[in-house]
Write a structure and sequence with these properties.
Length: 196
DNA sequence: AACTTCTACAACCGCAACAAA
DNA sequence: GTTTGTTGCGGTTGTAGAAGT
């Protein structure tokens, strides 16, 4: 199965775009294009740069892998703490969370969370199972990881993260509208400045 | 050594929001 | 005001390599 899939990859989709892993040549073309023309206009990248890739694919490759300033490697315990805190506030707003972790992408954080959350979930369920065999079942009090309402006041100024990123697509930081959140932001600011 | 399971990561898909025509 | 194209986001899947049995 794996072998046959690999043999078939990379393939061309029904739209004619190439799919699958990027080659160093493609990376080079994309980097050259973005260096010359800047980010954005992804739909024209494929044509102009001679890449047989969809704009979506080009953007994703750039944002998650090629963009300068990306940190590679392990998420530090400090970053993990920030992710946990921010996830408690915003839920699965990965791109929002990523704005507070310079050099980290939403995809990276999402992957990290899924891996680790799944692991924790599994161990939690396993221990519950063990408990339930010996104890009377009682209502489970879960830590609240509720996302904010969809219309949360996300649109604010970017002062919060000023200096942390300089990409043009660095949009807006969520507003800090309670003490807890403000404390968290202070913690993040302190940790990011100390780590740099 | 062979096999299985787990983890990390890259990439794709579908959808929604937004802007331009 | 409507349609169409583009961009960005979140969810999901697939693969490689590491770790465990």
């Amino acid at each position: 199965m794996v072998g046959s899939l690999m043999a078939a990859w990379p393939v061309q989709g029904q739209t004619g775009w190439r799919k699958g892993p990027w080659t160093p040549e493609e990376d080079k073309l994309l980097i050259e294009y973005v260096n010359l023309h800047g980010e954005g206009r992804w739909s024209s990248v494929s044509r102009c740069a001679g890449l047989n890739r969809s704009g979506k694919s080009c953007r994703l490759r750039w944002v998650n892998y090629l963009r300068p300033g990306l940190k590679r490697g392990q998420i530090t315990p400090q970053e993990e703490g920030i992710i946990i805190e921010l996830h408690a506030i915003w839920g699965n707003k990965w791109s929002t969370i990523a704005r507070y972790l310079p050099g980290r992408t939403d995809n990276e954080i999402k992957n990290y969370w899924r891996t680790h959350f799944k692991k924790k979930e599994r161990t939690r369920k396993a221990s519950e199972k063990r408990k339930s065999q010996t104890l009377k079942p009682k209502p489970l009090v879960q830590p609240q990881l509720q996302p904010q309402p969809k219309d949360e006041p996300l649109l604010h100024t970017q002062e919060l993260i000023s200096g942390s990123r300089n990409e043009p697509n660095n949009k807006i930081a969520p507003s800090t509208n309670n003490i807890e959140e403000q404390n968290l932001m202070a913690m993040i600011m302190a940790s990011s400045s100390s780590s740099s």
